[in-house]
What we know:
Layout: H1 5-19, H2 31-38, H3 42-55, E1 58-61, E2 65-68, H4 73-80, H5 83-88, H6 96-105, H7 126-135, H8 152-164
Antiparallel strand pairs: 1-2
Helix pairs in contact: 1-3, 2-3
Amino acid sequence: MEKPIYQKIIDDMLRDINNGQLEVGMKIPSQRALTQKYGVNRSTIVHVIDILKSYGVLESKERKGIYVSKNKWNEYVSNNLNWQDYIGNSINQNNQYYIREINRCEFIPEMVRLGTGELSPELIPNDTFHEIISKDLSRQLTSNYEAPKGNIQLRQQVKELVKKRGI
């Protein structure tokens, strides 16, 4: 499936930045020049510029134009690089061995798994919970979640307050 024209323009502009044809801090061509270069409507160029601004690649300077961002370009590059390409070609040993070991240890019954954030079953006072529940079955057990509309006592207090104020 062929990419939409606006995506091709985005890719082209990113390539120009990566190749140094558009440098950090450099003003990009005018919207008119870009519409002529790509043979598209001005609204397409405005859309492309908005997307590149949202990536942090471009920034507007009031009454001066649109520039390749000095501050945010590194954020875009850092978040959009395929680091696996660099790791795979590295002289350093790949970390797949450690990932396999971590996964293997997940199934060792004696292993305390701190990474999941779950309380170890031995630490849950099941007997105490059972005793408490068996003594007071008159109250319905609930979760810690509030009603979708919020805490009923708080809602009643707000109702009384606004009633006193004549609302």
